[in-house]
């Protein structure tokens, strides 16, 4: 029987909700406009407006919808709660649906930790209340899951089983049952967007050793090389230049190998 991951969304913990309440319903932008900006670091707001709002978000290499997904994934992965309401507003304005946001959070619960996902729910909750939004998300056993490449999945499973089965049989089993035979097959988020969120989270947290598999999967799912390169540019501003430059050689090698 499938585990009903949808129950995860029943409620955010009271503690997490209280911890985020102080940020306000539009904390990302509001904090930049607060009296503390001029007092503490006025140039931060100037740079954000000049380089991010008026430049980065206007670049054509990645749509505003994709930028919203990339940025939201990076914020969830790094637990950067204060900026989350602002980015969710951008996502909703860029035609990312509440159901897709719910899938991104659920997906990243497995890739960045359930505590990060619960914290994201608490941070996003006030935005949904302000817009009277209620996301609809069914457990997997109530859905018709997506089809998949059985041969490729068998190759993945065989490699992982042989390589790590004796090291951590539980991890290997859950990787197949919970992730690749359930999470990745949920229809609420397009495979390309699911891969985009995964790659973004990995780059944002510096886990470049996992990028090879997932970037190739993303490009197999339709992400183009220019779009993939722009993901790094977006993440440089939200997760820092060191994370971006750690990812560059990995992306470069993958691009080259796919052209061979």
SSE layout:
Layout: H1 14-21, H2 27-33, H3 35-40, H4 42-53, H5 64-78, H6 84-93, H7 98-112, H8 114-131, H9 150-164, H10 169-180, H11 191-204, H12 211-220, H13 225-239, H14 241-258
Helix pairs in contact: 1-8, 5-6, 5-7, 5-11, 5-13, 6-8, 7-8, 7-11, 9-10, 11-12, 11-13, 12-14, 13-14
Describe, in plain words, how this protein is organized in 3D.
By secondary structure, this protein is mainly α. It is built from 14 helices and no strands. It has helices at residues 14-21, 27-33, 35-40, 42-53, 64-78, 84-93, 98-112, 114-131, 150-164, 169-180, 191-204, 211-220, 225-239, 241-258. It starts with 13 loop residues before the first helix and ends with a helix. Residues 1-31 have low confidence and may be disordered.
Short synopsis of the structure:
The chain has 260 residues and is mostly helical.
Secondary-structure content class:
mainly alpha
Shape: globular
CA-based gyration radius: 19 Å
Sheet with the most strands, sense and barrel status:
none
What is the CATH superfamily classification? AhpD-like
Low-pLDDT segments, ≥5 res: 1-31
Question: How far do the termini sit from each other?
Answer: 43 Å
Q: Which CATH class applies here?
A: Mainly Alpha
């Amino acid at each position: 029987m499938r585990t009903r991951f949808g129950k995860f969304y029943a409620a955010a913990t009271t503690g997490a909700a209280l911890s985020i309440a102080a940020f306000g319903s539009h904390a990302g932008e509001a904090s930049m406009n607060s009296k503390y900006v001029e007092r503490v670091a006025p140039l931060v707001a100037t740079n954000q407006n000049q380089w991010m709002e008026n430049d980065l978000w206007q670049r054509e290499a990645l749509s505003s919808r994709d930028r919203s997904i990339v940025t939201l994934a990076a914020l969830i992965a790094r637990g950067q709660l204060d900026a989350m309401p602002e980015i969710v507003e951008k996502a909703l304005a860029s035609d990312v649906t509440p159901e897709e946001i719910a899938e991104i959070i659920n997906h990243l619960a497995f890739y960045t930790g359930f505590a990060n996902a619960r914290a994201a729910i608490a941070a996003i909750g006030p935005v949904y209340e302000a817009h009277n939004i209620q996301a609809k998300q069914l457990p997997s056993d109530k859905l018709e899951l997506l089809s998949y490449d059985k041969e490729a999945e068998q190759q993945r499973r065989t490699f992982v089983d042989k390589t790590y089965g004796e090291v951590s049989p539980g991890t290997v089993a859950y990787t197949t049952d919970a992730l690749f035979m359930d999470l990745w097959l949920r229809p609420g988020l397009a495979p390309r967007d699911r891969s985009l969120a995964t790659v973004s989270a990995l780059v944002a947290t510096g886990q470049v050793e996992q990028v090879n598999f997932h970037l190739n999967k993303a490009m197999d799912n339709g992400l183009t090389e220019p779009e993939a390169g722009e993901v790094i540019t977006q993440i440089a501003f939200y997760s820092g230049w060191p994370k971006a430059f750690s990812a560059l050689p990995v992306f470069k090698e993958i691009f080259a190998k796919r052209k061979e």
